[in-house]
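Fresh eyes needed here. Kindly weigh in on this sequence plus structure tokens:
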Amino acid sequence: MRIAVDCDDAAIDFKNQIFNYLKTAGYDITDLEYSSTHDCDYPEIAFNLAEAISNHKFDRGFLFCGTGLGVAMMANKVPGVFAGTCHDVYSAERLAKSNDANVLTMGARVIGVEHAKMVAEAWLKSEFQGGGSTQKVEKMRTLEKTHMK
């Protein structure tokens, strides 16, 4: 699994700690560091990572900002990207198992780093389970296309 990560200026230290933890744990993770080469804010950072997911350069991604909300909203604008904000293990597992989401967002001002490590790993270890959720996920993907021009 190829994983991308990025953040805005509110979450740099937070992102670095999560990135280092996952890298040390053996995950194939790349820090996009979009803002290091672009004068930008979280919308461009989230859009860049979401496009990389949509274009299949990465399988999953993490986006971090102050709350995790803004980056999730922006990432969800890119076709084929399904992002959710999670600050607990159960929600992170459900994000993958029930919703087949490919981007998880968190807020550096909302969750502590040690807990965020557990949330991140729980999401990465979870896979879409199908079953009763399959029809709902397919509906989301179909409805998404109604607004793609």
Observations:
- The chain has six helices and five strands.
